[in-house]
Amino acid sequence: MAEHGSGNATQLREVDGVVQTTQEAQEASPTFAPAPVRGRKGTRARPIGSLARYLARTFGPGPLTLGSVPGVAMIAGLVSAAIMVIRLLIPEPVGMADQGDGHGLVCSLGVMNQRPWDYAGFTKYIHPGWVPHQFFGEGCGANGTGEPYYSSQLLFLWLGKLLTPLLGWGPGLDTRAVGIVCCVVFGLLIAALINVLPGRTWFRLLIAALVTGVMADGVFADFFVSPYSEPAAFLGILAVSVALLNYWNGRGPRWLALLLVVLATAFTFAAKTQMVAWLPVIALALLWQPWRRGTTDGGPVAVDVSQGDAPLADAGRRRPRWRALVLPATAVLLLAAFSVAFLNAQPKRFSEVNLYNAVFVELLPYSPTPEADLDWLGLDPGFINAMDTTIASPRSAVYNPRYLQFQEQISLGKIVGFYATHPERLVTMGERGITAMLTPELGYVGSYLEGSEHGPYEKERRFPAVLGLFSGLKAAPVAFVGMQLVTLLLGLAVSFRKRSAVGRLAVILVLGGWLQFWAVMLNGGQGEIYKNMIIAGFVAALCVPLLVALISILASDPGKALAQKRRGRRARAQRAVS
Amino acid sequence: MGTANPETGLCHAVLSPEEYDATSESSPSVACAGSHTTQTFHVTKLSGPLASLEVRPNQQQLKAAGKTLCTVEALRGYLSASDRDGTIGLAVTSYFPSRDDWAAGSRAVRCDVAVTDKDGTPQETGFDLKGALAGPNSAAVRLCYRQEAKDGVLSEDGIDVPCSEPHTAEDISAWIPQDASLATPAEREARCLPYALEFLSIENMPAGIVVQPIIRTVGTARTVRCAVAPTEVLAPGQSPVLVTGSLAPERTPKVRVPETGGVASNG
Question: ipTM higher than 0.85?
Answer without folding.
Answer: no
